[in-house]
Design goal:
By secondary structure, this protein is α+β, with helices and mostly antiparallel strands. Helix content is 28%, strand content 20%. The chain has a four-stranded antiparallel β-sheet, covered by helices on one side. Helix 1 (49-64) crosses helix 2 (99-111), helix 1 crosses helix 3 and helix 2 runs antiparallel to helix 3.
Length: 159
């Protein structure tokens, strides 16, 4: 059996960044899958499920309501390894194309106050497993260390 694309990326050399994981033709369009890597794989602690869950709810809400990208959002959710998120967009995009969108989203998460959207028993299967303060901390860290002043090495997988 062949390795899937994400298992061919050198996770030893991978640093936090925004990467095009794959592009798949679907009908007459392309679906671009982004790897939003928030922590350094196998090098630092992974994110806990509570903050991942909070980021997922806030990020998905922000993205699906975005004026320009809302109709292009197919999926936003966590990686099983808990080092980042996948974002799937309808369209042929490059990493640099979505940096401003991600800055907006992570600033929204960093600055969010109040009840997390969908964090209620009728809306979510595990609504109590949320950690907003840690989600905000992680969003701030990703903005400061990755998204603001992003470099080319954080936009393309290591060769």
């Amino acid at each position: 059996m062949e390795k899937i694309t994400s298992f061919t990326v050198d996770h030893i050399r991978l640093i936090p960044g925004v990467y095009v994981s794959r592009k798949d033709p679907v009908g007459d369009t392309v679906v671009t899958t982004f790897d939003l890597r928030m922590t350094s794989p196998n090098d630092e602690p992974v994110m806990n499920t509570a903050e991942i869950h909070a980021i997922e709810h806030l990020g998905a809400t922000f993205l699906r309501n975005h004026a320009l990208y809302g109709t292009k959002i197919l999926y936003f959710g966590p990686m099983g390894c808990r080092t980042g998120f996948y974002l799937l967009l309808a369209g042929d995009f490059e990493s640099a194309d979505i940096v401003n969108l991600l800055i907006e989203m992570y600033e929204f998460i960093r600055d969010f106050e109040g009840d997390i959207p969908g964090a209620a028993p009728q809306d979510c299967g595990n609504y109590l497993d949320m950690n907003l303060p840690m989600a905000k901390w992680l969003a701030r860290r990703y903005l400061d260390e990755v998204l603001y002043d992003i470099t080319d090495e954080r936009l393309h997988y290591p060769g």
